[in-house]
Amino acid sequence: MAKVKPFRGIRPPRELVTQVASRPYDVLNSEEARAEALGNEKSLYHIIKPEIDFEPGTDEHDPKVYDKAVSNFKAFQHNGWLVQDEKEHYYIYAQTMNGRTQYGFVVAANVDDYMEGRIKKHELTRRDKEEDRMKHVRINDANIEPVFFAFPDNEELDSIMKKVIAGTPEYDFVAPDGFGHTFWVIDDDAMTAAITQAFAGIPSLYIADGHHRTAAAALVGNEKAKANANHTGNEEYNYFLAVAFPASHLNIIDYNRVVRDLNGLDAEGFLKALESSFEVELKGVEEYRPCRLHNFSLYLSGSWYSLTAREGTYDDSDPIGQLDVTVSSDLILRDILGIHDLRSDKRIDFVGGIRGLGELKRRVDSGEMAVALALYPVSMDQLMRIADTGNIMPPKTTWFEPKLRSGLVIHKLED
After folding, report:
1. Which of 95, 160, 233, 388 has the smallest count of CB within 10 Å of its CB?
2. Burial class of residue 382 (count of CB atoms within 10 Å of its CB; 0-12, 13-18, 19+)
3. Pairing state of beta strands 171-174 and 180-186?
4. In this structure, are residues 240 and 411 in contact, taking their beta carbons and an 8 Å threshold?
5. φ and ψ at 110, to 5 degrees?
6. What crossing angle do the helices spanning 155-165 and 189-200 adopt, rounded to 10°?
7. CA–CA distance from 376 to each of 236, 273, 323, 384, 388 (Å)?
8. How far is CA 234 from CA 6, 215, 413, in A?
9. Distance between alpha carbon 3 and the CA centroid of its chain, in Å?
10. Is 137 exposed, middle or buried (0-12, 13-18, 19+ CB in 10 A)?
11. Which residues sit opposite 5 in a β-bridge?
């Protein structure tokens, strides 16, 4: 059962939140962060991407960069740009994109739940990326940025959420990217206890986005437990910062592919090769978006095509085999285009659906890429089924938007 607790969040004063809050560390590079933080000494980028305080080109993994994160975090607290709440709270965080809002509970999630598999993953992680975030958590002794969880819909939590969001939010603003962010502090002790109890009845939490951050946070907590001879399991380091959304609130966006060449084929030969596994239909110059599972959109030589996988080319009884990313990886990328490793092959690139089909067309029309393939998005049911069966999704399968805004609340490992 999921174990969560309230915590004494460290947060910006209401009048400073738009100056402090930032995009997550991993969605932009150092120069983009430097540009976004220009003239704003209160930007969280000074903590999560502190290389921006050094000369351009400074290695973000240099020890002095990690040390700068610590000194900046201390300075933010000293200056009153980040202030710790006097009592433990849960919080509710809402994100609005294109008129659609999703609401999540901000909680301290349990390290043992991750180590023992009750917090379930669907992606592999890389040790080098884990270690980078582990250093950041260790040296700051805090989870500066939250991870993004999903949980099966729950009536009790839904009822509590509706009561909270009927009240006045602590923060309510639209970020420069146009996404809305609203944040409530839950200050009712009975409601807080009810949230803890309701989560205790949920068998599992699911990592939606942020596998490396989750692993890093949990592993640091586990390190601290092993190093403490008087460890009880109740210490604050046994928990890490997460925002948990009901599964029905979340919308996975398509994650598409572009390929540099046709593996020695011309356009006609490539289309002919596709016909053994797909029904191929020319759609013309107007953008065509996949309309259902096992239907794909192809852009080639100025035209859009519909590809529908033929019966027998996929296995809907297999949680991995039924994924369109598996079907396309096996039948198109591997068998026809000769791409066997999506993680390392330089002939392929990936485009988040937030950029639209127009980005696929642009990259092919420019001559940079030869062909683009758009996929029907994975569903939350598919994601949870894969995690429940202990399977791992193929690379570049899910894309979640909007991303969590960093800096709305921080969790310290020593309270």
Report:
1. 233
2. buried
3. antiparallel
4. yes
5. -90, 130
6. 150
7. 41, 21, 9, 17, 22
8. 12, 20, 11
9. 21
10. buried
11. 108
Rounded to whole angstroms, the Cα distance separating 203 from 217 reads 21
Closest by Cα among 241, 237, 329 to 277:
329
Nearest to residue 240, comparing CAs of 115, 88, 414, 413?
413
SS3 390: coil
N residues, the chain: 415
Residue 161, CA distances (Å) to 92, 166, 192, 198, 380 in order: 8, 9, 11, 12, 21
Using CA atoms of 115, 118, 122, 124 in order, give the dihedral in degrees to the nearest 10.
Answer: 0
Model's pTM, two decimal places? 0.90
Contact between 305 and 282 (Cβ < 8 Å) = yes
Q: What is the pLDDT of residues 352-388, one digit of tens each?
A: 888 899 999 999 999 999 999 999 999 999 999 999 9
Pick from 127, 101, 255: nearest CA to 183: 101
Are 40 and 19 in contact by the 8 Å Cβ rule? The answer is yes
pLDDT for 298 equals 98
Structural tokens at position 268: 């006609």
- Please name every residue paired with 143 in a beta bridge, in sequence order, or none if there are none: 411
User: Which tens digits make up the pLDDT trace of 17-35?
Assistant: 999 999 999 889 999 999 9
